[in-house]
Amino acid sequence: MSKSGEPSAEPIDDVSAAVAVALIDPVDFPSLSDSVVSGDTVAIAVDRELPQVGSVTAAVIATLLEANVAAEKIMVVLADSNDESLIGQKLPADIFAAINVTTHDPTDKNALAYLAASTAGDPIYVNRIICDADFAIPIGRVVVDTDSGNHIVTGGVFPSFADIGTQQRLASSAAGDKAKNRKREVDEAQWLLGARFTVQLVSGAGDTLLRAMAGDIDSVRAKVAGLAASLWNFEVPDEAALVVATIPGDASQQTWANVARAVTAAARIVRKDGDSPTAIAVCSELDLPPGPATSLIIGSANLDEAETLIAEGEFVDADSATKLIRVLRDTKIYLLSQLAENVVEDLGMAWVADPSEINNLCQRHETCTLLANAQHAWPSLVGANSAVNS
After folding, report:
1. Tell me: the pLDDT tens digits for 8-35?
2. Is the separation of the CB atoms in 378 and 265 below 8 Å?
3. What angle do CA 319, 320, 323 make, to 5 degrees?
4. Contact 373, 205 (CB under 8 A)
5. What are phi and psi of 102, to 5 degrees?
6. In the beta sheet, which residues pair with residue 334?
7. Domains (ranges, CATH) in the chain?
8. Which residues contact 237 (CB under 8 A, 6 or more apart)?
9. Chain segment 207-223, per-residue pLDDT in tens
10. CA distances from 374 to 34, 206, 262, 270, 283 (A)
C-alpha cells in the first residue's frame, strides 16, 4: 500500500503562544494592542470546524486583556454550539465568567442587525453582537477549494454569521460562475462591516495546527494560501483501485463537509477505468446526521434527481452534498463512522462496521493507496495538472 497525506512541517507545540506571536506582529496591520483601546467592545467571531478552538480563542482573549480591554467588553460569537464547552477550558475561571460567549443563531431575527443593502439590492444581515462591536476579530482556517484546487481562507464574518436565508443562498452558489458572484458579495459585506482584521490557521495532521497568521484579510489570504498549498498538495505515482481516505481528529473534524472533501480528494487518484472494481473507503468518527441537502439522496429516485432538487433549492449543505453525489455517481464509497447502518446504506454508501473490514477491502483490490488527513490533502497524479478530475 502506498501512502500520502502527511505534511512535512511539524505541528505547533504551543498553539496559544503561536497565536499570541501572530497578534503581536500582524501582516500589514497594526498590532492588536495598537488596534483597540480601553473601553472598546471586541467581538471574536469563531468559525466552525476550527481545531483547538479553546487554545486559539484563549490566546486572543489574553492579548486583548493585555491591551486593557475589559473582560466584560469581550464577546465570543461561535458559529457552532459544539464549541461552547471548549472555550472555558483554557481560561481562568474568573475571566471565563466575565466574558460573553454565545452561539450564532441565523434563524433568530432579534440576534441579527441590518448592515446595508448589497450592490445587487439584497439586504445584508449580520449577527448583532458582531455588527455593534467596535472591533471584530474573525478566526478561521485554510481549506482547499475542491472546485479550483486552490487553498482559501474561511471564517469571515459573512456569511458564517449572516441570516439563514443568506447562508442557504450562498451555500447553493459555491461553484462555477455563481462562485464569482458569491465571492463579490462576501467581500462587499466584509468591506461594509469594516472587518479587515483576521486570524487564520493552517491545519496539520488530525486536529493539530501548523501555522497561525493574523493581519489584513487580503494579505493574510495571499500568504497562507501558498503556504497551505506547499504543505497539503501531494503527488502520487499511480491511480489505485482502492483509496482509503482517513479523517482523523476530534469532533471539529468529523463533519459531512470534511467527508465530502475527503471523497473528492480521493476521487482524484482512484482508477477511472479497467475491468476490476474500484472504490473509496472513508475512515472517520462521524456521528452527525446528514444535513437537509444530503438527506435528499435518501428520498430521491436516483442521484440525478437528488442533484436536481439540491440545485433548485437553497440548503446550507448544498455544496458538500453535491460533491458527494458526483463521486457516488462514478465510484463505490465505503464509510466507517459512528452512524447507524441504515443511515449509511440509505445514502447509497456501504456501511463499514469495524476497521478490520478496511483491511479486508485492501486485500480484495489489486492496488491500494492510503490518503491520510484526506479532509486537508489535495493529491494529484505525477505529471498531471491541478485541475479537479471531472
Report:
1. 899 999 999 999 999 999 999 999 889 9
2. yes
3. 90
4. yes
5. -140, 160
6. 281, 350
7. 2-230 (3.40.50.11440), 237-381 (3.90.226.30)
8. 2, 381, 382
9. 899 999 999 999 998 89
10. 39, 10, 5, 13, 10
